[in-house]
Amino acid sequence: MYQIKQNGSVIGYSDDVIFVRLHENGCYVPCERAQAGGFCVKVPVDYTEENGETKTRLEDFVYKFSDDDLLGIEPTATVEQFSGALMIAEADKVVDILVGGADE
Asked: Strands of 2-6's sheet, edge to edge?
């Protein structure tokens, strides 16, 4: 699992990250992290169908590592590998505290 941060704050998590660089023709192409100018992740996007019902779908979204990377129009963010198991354990601990099940 990966943790996505923007301006020092966590903005989301993703199971998969595709590191990308800019090809000479202006397209994003997958690459190794060492050559990457940014990364692509799937993010949830809400949309409204014609019948007025709101649904959520996953869409690809590209972030750059710095202002000098990629096209320059992408938002800047960082990505770090993160332990999903640790996140679940911490969430369980918080729930226990909130419902009075732990003495912390």
From this structure: 9-14, 2-6, 78-81
Backbone angles phi, psi at 82, to 5 degrees: -140, 140
Average pLDDT, the chain: 87
pLDDT of residue 86: 61
* Calpha distance 41→95 (Å, rounded): 29
Q: How many helices (H) and strands (E) does the chain have?
A: 1, 7
Q: Bridge-partner residues for 56, per DSSP?
A: 46
Other Cβ atoms less than 10 A from the Cβ of 82: the count is 15
Task: Report yes or no: 22 and 70 within 8 Å, Cβ to Cβ.
Answer: yes
Q: Which two tokens stand for residue 81?
A: 């590998």
Q: What is the pTM of this model?
A: 0.73
Q: Answer yes or no: are the C-beta atoms of 56 and 46 closer than 8 Å.
A: yes
